[in-house]
Design brief:
The structure is a single chain. With 140 residues, the protein is mainly beta. It has one domain: Rieske [2Fe-2S] iron-sulphur domain (Rieske Iron-sulfur Protein), CATH 2.102.10.10. Helices cover 9% and strands 37% of the residues. It contains one helix and ten strands. The strands form three sheets. It has a four-stranded antiparallel sheet with strand order 2-3-4-8, with no helix packed on it. It has a three-stranded antiparallel sheet with strand order 1-10-9. The chain has a three-stranded antiparallel sheet with strand order 5-6-7, with no helix packed on it. The longest helix has 12 residues, at 8-19. The radius of gyration is 17 Å and the shape is globular.
């Protein structure tokens, strides 16, 4: 029987990485509009949140910045699905971005950053990585 052992150095690196991630509260469930997008701040980062309870009962979080228009407006996009994949269409130029991985369906060179998001009790939280020694600021 083969057993895998983790060196102390490997464990320290894993602990350091985990210590640089934290769930940040950015709002409440009541701030959301089912089936639509809402903008929120996580520190200084603008995030677009999409709650689709009627289809997936999942909370999605992507950057609010549209790489095509150069404007923070993804939260105002039209939510739908393409081939069963949840997407948001940019409100200006109508490119479709996957809510699963952020890729643009029309231009694979462009992508939105995707964040893990969850409901914790009544709070909306996103998982953020923070720089060593810096604490993320939450904006409700």
């Amino acid at each position: 029987m083969m057993t895998e052992t983790i060196s102390k150095a490997q464990q320290n690196r894993a602990d350091q990485f985990a210590a640089h991630e934290e769930w940040v509260t950015i709002g409440r469930r009541s701030d959301l509009i089912p089936g639509s997008g809402v903008g929120a701040l996580a520190g200084e980062l603008q995030i677009a949140l999409f709650w689709l309870p009627e289809l997936y009962d999942t909370l999605y979080a992507v950057t609010n910045y549209c790489p095509f228009s150069g404007v923070h407006l993804i939260a105002r996009g039209i939510v739908g699905d393409v081939g069963g994949e949840p997407v948001v269409a940019s409100p200006l130029y109508k490119q479709h971005f996957s809510l699963l991985d952020g890729r643009c369906l029309e231009d694979p060179e462009q992508k939105l950053q995707v964040f893990q998001a969850r409901f914790y009790r009544d709070e909306i939280q996103v998982l953020q990585r923070r720089a060593s020694g810096k604490k993320a600021r939450a904006a409700a």
